[in-house]
TrEMBL record:
The keyword RNA-binding applies. It comes from Halanaerobium saccharolyticum. Transmembrane segments: none annotated. Keywords: RNA-binding. This is Twitching motility protein PilT. InterPro entries: Mut7-C_RNAse_dom, Ub_Mut7C. It comes from the Bacteria. Pfam families: Mut7-C, Ub-Mut7C.
Amino acid sequence: MKTIKLRFYSYLNKFINLDRTKNLELINGRYYLHHYRGRQTIKDRVESIGVPHPEVALILKNGEPVDFSYLVQPGDLFSIYPPLYNFKLSAEKTLLPEYPLDKPKFILDVHLGRLARYLRRFGFDTAYRNDYLDPEIADIAEKEERIILSRDLGLLMRKKVKWASFIWNDDPKEQLKEVFNRYSLSQYYQGESRCVNCNSKLEKIDKEEIIERLEPKTKKYFNDFRYCKTCDKIYWRGSHFKKTEKLLNRLKES
């Protein structure tokens, strides 16, 4: 068998499970020796170890950048880096395709329903259904230029996936923090939300048009309303809005 040496940086090491990965051994606490057969690309080797390609921003081979198609050679030493929140790589070095839209759009897997509602509260176009299949998510993401958020490594390793993040936390608010940090989302929030149920844009509606549907206290104390035509839901700037603003402040401080 042939052997290469790899070093993974930052959280990429969390993807690696030595007990479940064949032909891999840790040396000196930081480098991995990986044994393989035949002709193999570095992308194939990295994903066989458990690291999905959308989480890899830069690969250096003996100090020089290579792309995913590089055919590994015995004795190669690879340094593999994730996206760095506060550092943008030049276009010729990064392995992450440039995201084409001014504001991120997302699609979430079936495990992330509460995160989907949070993202919609902050106005982000977020596709979610609790019966999505992995191929469907990958197809929609490609067609609609959406970033996939998932806890399913198999989904992130699909060949057609361009933009994606693995979500580490179980708690939805911590998941939201992950996404805000990864994609610098605070800069996009303008105080407007989408419908948390169906993701539709909310439209401003005159109070007089819906006054018969309002509870007495809502009718008395609130005058600014939004309406979802798709699911016939009314929104107003009550305690829900204040909680959103408070949560945003915590995200900015973190």
